[in-house]
Each structure stands twice: as C-alpha cells, then as structure tokens.
Amino acid sequence: MTGATLEISGPAEHAVFQRDEKGEAKIEVRVKTSGSARMRARLRQGHKAVKGFGWTELTLIDGVGTIKGVPTGGPYTFDIVQLGDKGDTLSSGSVGDLLVGDLWIMAGQSNMDGCGKLHNAEKPSRNVHAFYYDDRWDVAHQPLCWYAEATDVVHRPQDPDGRPIEELIQSARHWQETGAGPAVSFANAIHKTVGVPVGIVVCSHGGTSMSQWDPSRADEGGNSLYGSMLRRVNAVGGKVTGCIWYQGESDSTGEDAIEAFHNRFTDLIAAFRSDCGDPSMPFIYVQLASVFMGDFEIGWNRIQNTQLEIESEIDNTAVAVAIDSSLCDIIHIDSASAKRVGRRLARLAQILAYGDAELRRGPRPIRFEFDDEERKVLRVGYDQVNGRLQPTNHVWGFSAWDGDDRRPIATAIVDPDQPTDVVLTFEKPLPKNCDLWYGRGLNPSVNLIDGADMAAPVFGPVIV
After folding, report:
1. Topology of domain 109-352, CATH
2. How far from chain centre, in Å, is Cα 109?
3. Would you say domain 4-98 falls under CATH 2.60.40.1180?
4. Can you tell me whether residue 192 is helix, strand or coil?
5. Within 10 Å of residue 438's Cβ, how many Cβ atoms?
6. The CA-based dihedral angle spanning residues 51, 52, 58, 59, taken in that order and rounded to the nearest 10 degrees
C-alpha cells in the first residue's frame, strides 16, 4: 500500500440526498485517478458496513460511479480504495456525514432568513443539514444566510464603502448576533415526527419583492433570485420534497404591487412546481405577522387575506399563521416565535408531504351565523380544528365595523358545547352589512389557537 490519498470530488461532505418513492437514493461518486481505475467501495455507519453495501467493485465511467438503493437514514460514510494489478491497495479515501432523506427549499425574504437573536435560536441537529449560499453542505447552524459568501451574484452585498468581499465576510462572521429563523425548527420537527433526515436548500433573501422573484428571469441564473434557486436545486440533484416560503412584506405598500400579488404568487407556485418537475409539490407559506410601521397601512391586511384565499384555490398548498408572534424589531418575528412558526410549518408538511390523516391544518373560518333575530349574537364556525379552540373565555382579535364605526363586543367565548365555534355577543344589535374581521390592523391583539397550537388566521372583511 502506498498510503496515497484518493482524490474524491463528489459527493460532498455532509451532503443530503433526496430519497425516491421507495425511500432510497442514488449517490454518484466522482473520482480523479491515474493509472489503474479498478475500484472497490463500501458504505458504512460508524464502523459497520450498511447491509448490502459492503466492499464491492465500483465501475467508473469517465471517473463517475453510481451507488444505487441507499436507504433513508445516515449519517453514512463512503469509503473507496484504488487497487493495483495484483489487488494491492494503491490509494484510498473517504467522504463522511452523508444523509438520505428529504430536501426542502427555503425561500422568501428576511423573516425566512431569520432575524431573531441567536442566543435563543433553535439548536442544530446532526440529522438536519443545509446547502449554504457558497454551495457548501454542512450541519444547519443558524444563521443560514451569509450573503457575502454567496456563489451567486444576486445574493452578494454591495458595500457602500467599497470594502473587499473578504472583509465583509470576516466582519459578518465576527459580529453577527441575529439570524434565528423558522427553517431549522421546521426541519428538526420533521425529523422528530417523521424520522427522516432533512436538507435545507437556502434560497431566501431579505427585502425582496414578488417582482424580484419573477420566474421569467430564470435564464439569468445566479443573477436573479429565481434563477439562483433553480441552479441550486439542480446542484443538489434536481429533486426536492417541497418548499417553505415566507414573503409578502415588500408587496404590501403601493397599489400596483398589492393588486398584482395574487397573480404573481400563484404564478410563482406554478413555476416552482413545473421547474422542479413535480406538479403537486407541497408549497407551505407563512401569513404575514404584525408590523409597527405606518407605511403598510394600505395593504398589510389585504396581503394577509390574499394569502389565506390562495390556500383554498391551489391544491397541496397550506398557510402557516404567524399573527400571534412577538417581534424582535418593527417587522421581524423573534427567536421564540420563529421556533413556533417552524413547528407550524412542519405540522402542515406532515399533512401535505407525509400524508398524516390524523392532523388538521388549524382553525379556518367557514361559517358566520347569527343565533338571534336581534343580531346581537354572532357565531363564527371553524373547520380544521385540532381538538378544541382556546382560550375558552376572553377571545381577542375579532372586530365588527359599520363603515368607520367600530361596534363594541361585550363577550367573545368558545362555545362549550361546540368547541370549534366562537360566539361573539355585541353590546348593541349589528346593522346589516357590517364588516367582520379577525386580526384587523398592523399590530392586533389576538389569541385564538387550537389544541395543537395552530393559530387562527387573519381574515376580513366578511360581510355579516
């Protein structure tokens, strides 16, 4: 044995491979050789070979070999040796910490990037890895988004002082104190409940609008957000399980952007599915939370309502609710809320991607009926409730408006005999054609959840 190290250019350390419908993956091995091209390879966990993947001949075609049928799980280590004419070992090499599971695209803007304090961030897991902006696989440690290190130009920052990129990278790594978002919590919850390793394909970028995510810019590759997303998906094998998305803040100011949001969002979902080769790919997104900026007064609730409507319009989509989140600044959810939203996204993924028929999406308003002819007692019925609605008394978040006149609510309770209904009692009879809302405004006080901590979404106006 020469003791030389074999040069293995793929797979990458820490890579996650998308499993197929059989729960298996194909791993391509790329080796640079000189002289003999006779190879033997194995796959192991710890010190033991994976059953069916002990030492065997590996056929290389133009330096590429294929290992088929690798089962869901890991972490695996791939070992390969180069043999001489007499069967002696000429060189050897290994690649470790490989996982077979499910890949999820993480996209949108800053609330998906994560802006919460890192000291309270979701802890990393050896079963959850991320494909970072620099095309590097590693364990998913927050923050996930390091713009200055990006391979694709669209993500790289432009420093107004003209500092070199190396200095920006060093500064970010040294001073970063925020960056906790929902994606790692989502992935950890998927692994815990489904038992499958998860790879997060990081594609989000703060401050971006739907127009910047325009699928027509796909041909621009790394110079556009959508093109970068496609390139990165192809770089990890071209197949994913689904997408989690958190965006809409940048489209809630300006009438043109608000009006165009519905069509732009639905077109984006269709493009994602088409370009990822899965017409029913699960697409799970977050309804906007609160905000402390008056600039959003025009469109914030309109975007939230559109997000709720799209769930019922497009199959295999689901909206996670964040309106009961707390903020770490004027517009970003904090670390604790990011964890909570991540778990809600994961629960919806269990329904859409993993077929858990026992779970419900969370409260969705479906009925609005008066219990009396006087129009003082209004019943709001919810579907998709896990268990019962809560709290039992002092439900916050509903409001009724007669034009600009807000009509006082005396009590708001969950019906003890029908615990999927909220009963609103008004101080005075409601005039006809009043507008009913839940979560109206930029920073509403809301508290309606179900037994699985899935929150009721913002809606309105509903004419009652």
Report:
1. Rossmann fold (3.40.50)
2. 11
3. no
4. helix
5. 23
6. -150
